[in-house]
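Now for our target.
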Amino acid sequence: MLDDLVAVLTAGAAVVFLAAGATMIVRGVLGRRAVGAELAAQRIRFPAADALPADLARHAGSPVRTGGQARAYSAVIAANLAKATDGRTYSEIAADCTGGGHGDERLTRLRETAFTGQSLRGALLGAYQAWQVSLLVVGLGALFAVLGAVLLLVSLRGW
């Protein structure tokens, strides 16, 4: 009697793990496709190799379609932003604007540039994180599916 109960519970757990694993794999793959589609829709393209840091030259002219490419492009923006702002952050420039730079058009434009650059970087890094999380979901889904298959075998064999 107890053996039958254990077999039924094990089979039930197997079904739950198999269903969860399959769902996670599908959702993870769909998530990656959604991130890739959104990045492609933005039509972001890396500049020529001479405008890129040496470690990113392999991306020259390529469109941004993956999380890794989004992260790399955010590094390009960071480098350009550091040049444009002399390494100052948005908050530092904004503090100058409110602290005594009222009416200074150059400082206002610099603040807008810093804000736009940081916003773009944040969006691209968010895409990278979503790309990575979707990979994690696929991996965990595969693990759940394997665990479900093992539990199903155990319940069917009566181990």
The mean pLDDT is 93. DSSP finds four helices and no strands in the chain. Residues 2-157 form one domain. Residues 105-157 form the longest helix (53 residues).
